[in-house]
Structure formats: C-alpha cells, structure tokens
Amino acid sequence: MIRLAAIALILAGVSAPAMAAQEVTYGPAPEWLMPTLEPVAPDRRQGAIAVLARDVQIRLDADGQHMYEATDYLVQTAEGLAIGNLQIVWNPAAGGPTVHAVNIVRDGEVIDVLAQEGFRIFQREGGLEQAFLDGLLTASLQVPGLRVGDRLQFVLTSHVKDPTFGDQPFGLMAMPALPSAGSYRSALSWEEGHAPRWLATPDIAGQVQQNAGGIVLRLDQPGQYSPPDNAPLRFSPARMIEYSAFADWQDVSARIYPLFAHRAVLPEGSELANDAARILRNYASEADRARAALRLVQDQVRYVFVGLDGGNCTPASVADTWARRYGDCKAKTVMLMALLHAMDIPAEAVLVNQSVGASDMVAHFLPSPGQFDHVLVRALVDGRHVWLDGTRHGDLRLSEVPPDGIREFLPLRAEGSGLETLPYHPPAEPLTITLREYDATAGIDQLSRLRMRQIYRGVEAVQMRAGLEALPPDMLDQVLRRLVGGEGAWAELERLDWSFNEEYAALVIEAEGLDDLEWDEADDYSITSFAIPMAGFNPPPRRQRPPQQDRSLPYANDPLRFPCYVTTIRLPAITARQGWTHSADAMNVEIGGVAYWRMADLENGELRTVMSSRTVRHEITAEEAAVANAAIPGFDNSQSWAYLRRNPETRSQRQIAVPGLTRVPAAGEVDWLADPSACRAP
C-alpha cells in the first residue's frame, strides 16, 4: 500500500519456504515486464505529493507470485518530503523484496540513491499492543538530499511462494479512491497453465484489455471516486481487479479443511484430554458440556494473533496452543473442536467475514480464502446447530443465530461446501438498554435522586469487558464516568460500578447520584414542566445521493441497530386541584426499514416511558427510500415533556399504540437482561 509518510509493501505468506528471506536484495527488473509506463503531464498538481506514474504488474508462474511496483513521485511542498522515508515490510517466511531503483530526478539529472545508501533492516512487531504476533521484517531507507521540486522514483519486485496455496494464487489490484493526477497501470500476466479467473469491478470492466497471457488496465488522471452514499457495501468496491485460481467455494472449503481437521485432536494422555474426560463426568447434557468446553478455551487461552512460520492461514496444533497458553481464532477453533469431538459432539470450523454491513458481500467476489477474516465453530448440540466463538471471552450462549449479524459463511468440509447465506433477521434483543430511575419526590426545583443502568450486549459488551478489566483503578473510574455521561451530566455522582453477566453475555454499568430535571418556570398553561430524559426521537435521516452517483441503488440500514431507553420518574406530590400530564405520545411506525416504538403512562404519581428504534430491514430500495423521505415531515420528533397543570387531568395518560397491551413497565420492575421484550413492538 502507498502512504504519504512511508511506502510499505506487505508480502503476506502462510508457510515458510526452504530459505527465509531475511535481507533486501538488489538487482535488475525482471524480463517479463511490459514497457515502462510513461507519466502523463497532469492537468492538476495539488497536495504535498503528486503521483506522476504508478505501475503495478503481477506475474503468476510455477514459482509463485511476483509483484512489480514502480512509482514516480513529485514532491511539491515541504510536507511532501516525508515521502523520503521509504519502508518495505515483508514476511520472511513467505518471500522477500528485490529493489531495482531509488532515484532522485532533479533538473533532468538522475541521482542514484542506492549508490550512497541502502535499506537497513530491523525486526518489526508493531502489533504487539493489539495482540498481534506476525514476525514481519521492516527495511527502511531515509532518502538523503531530497528537496521540494524533486521527483522520487522507487522500483521493486516482491516474490511470494506459498506452499499451502502456492498452486492456487489469489489476490487483487486496487487503486485508491482519491488518486493523485497522473498515469496508472495495473497488469496481471501468467505463464501458460497458470491462468486464474479474474473479475473487474463494473466501473472499469470495459477498460480492461485482455490477451492470451494476461490483462492490463491503463487509467490516466482518473480523478476521485466516491462510493455511492448509504448504499450496501457490495456496491462500494471500484477500480479493482481480483484474481483467483480456486474453481469455486467448494474448492476453497476442501483445500482449507485439512488445515483444521488434522489439528483438531487432543494429545493422548494430555492435561486437555483429562479435562475433556472431567467435563464428561461432571456434566450430563450436551449443552452444559459444550458451555464447559467453551469456557475452558476462552478462559485458559488468551487471544494473540499468530502469523509466524505460516500461521496466517494454518492453525497451531492443540498441543502447541495449550503449552504456550495463547492463540488466535484459528487455534481456539481447533482446540474447541477437539474438545467437542472428544465428547462426541459434532462440530465443524466455519469461515466468516465479521465486517458490519458486509454480511452479503462475500458472494459478490471470486472464491478465495482472502474473503474471510474470522473462523468459529458450528456444533450440533442437543439436536440443534449452535455457534461458538472461542475468542469472545465470557460469551457462553449457545445461540442458533450467528453472532453480530453474520449471514454468509463457509463451512470447512472434506468434500467441500458451498457458501451458505442466511436471510436477514432483525436483532431480537437490544444491543444497548439505558435505564433511568428518578426519585423527584423531594419537590419541584429540587435535585432528584437518579439510579442509572446501562446494559451492553453483543461483541461491544465482550470488547468493553476486556478493556475495563485491563484498566488500573484510577483510569477505570475516568472511563466509567465518561460512559455514564461525564461529570457535567450529573449534579453529584455518588456511586459507580460495572459487572459482566455471563449467562446473557451482557456488560452492566450502574451509577447513582443526584441530577437536575431542569424544572421550567410557570407559564399560562403549566405551573412547571420538564423535558423527559430519553423519551424523544431524532427524525429519521433522509436517503438521498448527489446527481453524479447512482440513485437507483438500494439504501443500507445498520443491521444491528436496536437501542432501547427506559425512563421512570416518581413525581412530587400535588394538591387535589392540580394534575400531571405528558406529551410522550404513543408511536409504532416503520420508516425506511426502521421501526420506531414508544409507549408512556402516568399513574399514581409515576411517569414511565419506553422507547426504541430497531432495524427490521437491512436495506430498502430507492423507491422505498423516496416513500420514507416523504414521511419524515410527519414524524413526531418533538421532545417529550411532563407538565404540572393548574387543574386535574381527566383523560387517561396511557399512550400505547398496540391494543391489548395495558402496562408500561417501570425501569425497576423488570429483569431487562432476561426479558427485554418491552423494548420491541409486539
């Protein structure tokens, strides 16, 4: 990839060849290259650096993949001098780089930088703080004497030989969305017998030229590309060519299957084998046994991504992972499968893409292992398929629905499997519930006592738990205070705590203190009033795109959206000639694939509201978006208010839009972890 501050070439491999590439080599460019790409004089040269020419050529042959990169930069400002920090990053277990040239061109003179300086190598483990152990090497060169107005030319070729997938190469060539004005070429060529399948995105498909031995795309001054606003992610890729030698998804599944199946075995007589036997003795049901195995993998093996020595795609053995007590999703999946198999519980590894919004995107790409970023376990427990993730510490639920809205997945099987796609299901439970209980009985214009609880579910809860557990006490207090609104949100914050409920995989933050309901002064209609916290909606967003974008495409919704807000207020006592009322009208409406729900009641001096918005359709058509836009002006986005009137109110204060539902639950009378159904319209 190209960065302004550095040029970095990532050579990612999965298994070590006989000779690891520990050094940068220097030499001439390969013979298979096309003629040099000549830069086109740009009609605009804005920014710190202009890319005059960028040439990427990939060659596939019996020796693997070779990627040639040549870039011609023009330094236009002092800030652009940072391009002189050249870096090459590679995996020495997979191959290495050969640098062909580093030149400065000044006033027509070519200065050979490599005649003065070479790349210096140092070990790089830059991802350790994110629990990444990848074994990458970095070579760095600070270009001496670079000046504003100079051209900097950097040319190199990388080689990757992957014994795991070496005879089935895959990859992509992509151009940045905002390229500098200049000449760009992406070329893919192959020796006879090594031709892959290839696919170009629709925006460039007509410009790709093909011959018997390869394809080439040439773009001059391509300008900025903006993905269509608010469209599903499958419409975002552009200026991209992907290639793959895999025949289909069954081919991918069958090729990766043995990497996991052959390692999902408990070492005979090992501590883990004894643990499996203990679980069998102590738990009678398959569900309890599966949870116990999952807890063991989550609790006893910490998460660390391992990309060393071919670990990018190949999981570590159960014995190795248990000995070092750390592993990534691959290692945890293999260990969990081994434990389940020892208990006669069928289980298989499943590849997924965790990116939110990409749940139906994989099928639009060519089949390859590169479309997935995570692996988990699908097991048959008590006759039902459940999903288990050894990396989600504390999440022991045996869910029949994949986590976090995942809809596409690839089971790994000996005979291979096709890509499976599930229909979209709206979130069944709120991902966040904010509960606020006010005791305002001290009187008007007095501070109210507030008890607040925030419930988080899903991957956010798991990640928050890990983060909070790692904080020292003083920082933990600061973070928790921010999560409940900060000091400015409270008149006085007296108690603050958090906990994690493993039964529901939910994180709960609790706070107590004093708060100001901000009582208003009297007017012609009311003695006083105040805005009801967490009881008013923002209007739905308009779905529209600028004229230069395709307005016929569908619009995407957040597939996981489901926040819920519950507010209960015990009001001050009043005289018989006074009356409380409110403006939190009932709502049960769907606009643009999002369901808005609100109910409220005021009874026996207690005001109760429940409000939520929930995605019920993950995307809508352009025609449906127009209907939704037309409904926005009539949407009730007014703040909900409570009023103390001078005369008693005779009308019912209950506002529920569903017949037969007669109770608005108070924040303190429901176990919202076990039963959050009040957050959802019946």
TrEMBL record:
Signal peptide residues on this chain, from the entry's feature table: 1-20
Pfam family for this entry, one: DUF3857
Domain of life: Bacteria
InterPro entries, A to Z: DUF3857, Papain-like_cys_pep_sf
Keyword Signal: yes
Domain DUF3857 positions: 72-202
Keywords (A to Z) from UniProt: Signal
Claim: Signal is one of the keywords in the record: yes
Protein name, as recorded: DUF3857 domain-containing transglutaminase family protein
Lineage: Bacteria, Pseudomonadati, Pseudomonadota, Alphaproteobacteria, Sphingomonadales
